Amino acid sequence: MISVDNLTVSFGGWDLFKDISLLVNPKDRIGLVGKNGAGKSTLLKVIAGEQPATSGTVTRSGDVTVGYLPQQMKVADTTSLVEETAGAFTEVIALEREIAELTDEIAVRTDYESADYEKLLHRLNDATDRYHILGGDNREAEIEKTLLGLGFRRSDFDRPTSEFSGGWRMRIELAKLLLRRPSVFLLDEPTNHLDIESIQWLEGYLKEYNGAVVLISHDRAFLDNVTNRTVEIMLGKLYDYKVPYSRYVELRRERRQQQMAAYENQQRMIEKTEEFIEKFRYKPTKSNQVQSRIKQLEKLDRIEVDEEDLSALSIKFPPAPRSGQIVAEVKGAGMSFGEKHVFSGAEFTIEKGDRIALVGRNGEGKTTFARMLVGELRPTEGSIRVGVNVNTGYYAQNQDDLMNGDFTVYDTLDRVAVGDIRTRLRDILGAFLFRGEDIDKKVKVLSGGERSRLAMARMMLEPHNLLVLDEPTNHMDMRSKDILKNALLKYDGTLVVVSHDREFLDGLVDKVYEFRDGGVKEYLGGIWYFLEKRRVESMREIEARQPAASAPAAAKPEKKKVDYQQKKELERTIRKTQGAVAAVEQRITGLEAEVAEWDKRLADPAAHGIDLSDGSVFGEYNALKERLAYEVHEWEKLGYELELLEDRLKEML
């Protein structure tokens, strides 16, 4: 469909990437990955024809059409939501006109055997096929389905687009793009402005789509659920893996190890050969051997190792000061802005050590509640009372915009740092990837990811026992998100985080508060537990909205039989899950015993003949603890699943 051949993009003599080639095939699902700044967005722009390449070619076969969604774009403000979205069907409208004209012309022609008449018939057939492919028959239903899937309400359909925020305007552009049904989607961070429900809907849409998809995303779960091929851009080179992202990570690690082993073996051979040459270069009796080895080195096909990009966000949160057991009491809290009601009836208590995720569709009040919790907004209903000795650190969505653009990176921290920590500012900035001349850059020239990292560094200059983080992973690449998550896992305070990144929230939170339809609902479990519960509840809502069919009396016994079969199947699934839980518990017991034995041996290494200078000792110990942590996580997930299954069985009884 699309062939990229020997493509090079250079800026001022520096190659962003050089002589890369890529083939996009029909129905490919390609995840384009790499560090921020590696050239992913640039490659999409070149393929889309939005930016010229320095050299090389991009070739599209036949009548291939491309739909490109950039990270930022201007959206029209002159129409309503439905009218603007209907603009996606300009080709359909043109085809309707052409089909009508062709039909009229064919109706009056009598030269049935002529080549022109046959040509008209072929064109009418092609136009009609294309019309059906583009959904011309039911475009109003397609518009409604797509807008609802992306989180809009029916009450939004007639609203002017000028009333929507930037994130919702991007959804309008995404809806138009999906409705155009191009041969190839080129999507640059399509989930940036979507909530979890909309992301899941988009996953389902792209998986079933008949064309090809090339996308950039820092959402690991989204990549794993949509893509079947991963293309990495690293340090100007391109590496193609025919697997989803998580599998790619494993294969990349294996490839790196194999390359390093071969490279090291060759380097040892080269070193020994060069030593021989230097040692006997001036001995006449060895001249033939010396010349032979010189020629051998000249002809040697030297192994090149991919330069590994090890730079990453390395952070550690300061120890949390002691606070009271009650961090915040939320009693009947709600918020309205004038006539616009956001939510009401929030009733819960945040206790010391809680790890809470705030989720829900955009505009339902997640950010509003976060601002209320930190004291930026006062509730218009009820109250929010913060506990004793609670010291809050707040990372806002627009935190990076709140910094003075004329300050340097170093000055941004220096102006808020106090005490001895001022002597460690360079070390702190280094941990956030600001090294050397980077610290003298002005904030206004930084990328979105750099601004986010700087804002996080500034927040960490003083210890907090409550962290309220609103979309902290926006603009972060995979590696940075992983290390931020690990730092938060080790944080010993209370955490409240707004995020739509399921992989980031997995294992990080143990409570979920969903903001939906003007209210707040509590789920006691992790993010996957919430998503499964939400799916079940959504099915019930749909069933409740459907009118009960008046079935004849003869059909009732058949329904009972179906229910009986469903019940038996559910009971089998429960027994299977119970068996899986028992097996995991058995593995956990064994691993806990092994860890306890290691603890005992390491407490007195001399008595057990352990050499602590041997690095492999701690490697084996840490690997054992990681296996234990993994099994505990699996046990929790299976426990959630079993609870859901048992709840479903109770409903059937």
Automatic annotation (TrEMBL):
One protein family per Pfam: ABC_tran_Xtn
Span of domain ABC transporter: 2-260, 328-542
Coiled-coil parts of chain: 567-601
InterPro entries reported in the protein's UniProt record: AAA+_ATPase, ABC_tran_Xtn, ABC_transporter-like_ATP-bd, ABC_transporter-like_CS, ABCF_ATPase, P-loop_NTPase, Val-tRNA_synth_C_sf
Keywords: ATP-binding, Coiled coil, Nucleotide-binding, Transferase
Keyword Zinc-finger among record annotations: no
MF-aspect GO terms: transferase activity
Superkingdom as given in the UniProt entry: Bacteria
Coiled coil among keywords: yes
This protein's name: Glycosyl transferase family 2
Species assigned in the record: Alistipes inops
Lineage: Bacteria, Pseudomonadati, Bacteroidota, Bacteroidia, Bacteroidales
